[in-house]
């Protein structure tokens, strides 16, 4: 678990996103048990109902499932589902605005590709 929460979004959403991140980066795999609402509550010193809201959001999406009396677990196919969701969000949040700005500046698709390549080569 990350050691801190921020005030930019609701705590329950941050809890859900932390679990999602751990599934995407393979620190939580399909079938693994996730921390309980009480563990999240104790770690972040928050109300267990707040932690439960984040976890239940993932249950509703089919990312987690409950084993009665045992806890919450990562569902089969959760990583693939989350990667697709995040790619869709990436497209909406970054690619569409990028294309829109590129059109305003009369930047061609090839120029955009060249810029992306230049950025990649610049990091190395």
From TrEMBL:
Entry-linked SMART domains:
HTH_GNTR
Q: Which Pfam families match?
A: GntR
- SUPFAM superfamilies per the UniProt record, alphabetical: Winged helix' DNA-binding domain
Q: Which UniProt keywords apply?
A: DNA-binding, Transcription, Transcription regulation
The residue ranges of the HTH gntR-type domain are 9-77
Q: Which protein is depicted?
A: GntR family transcriptional regulator
**Which Gene3D superfamilies is this protein grouped with?**
Winged helix-like DNA-binding domain superfamily/Winged helix DNA-binding domain (1.10.10.10)
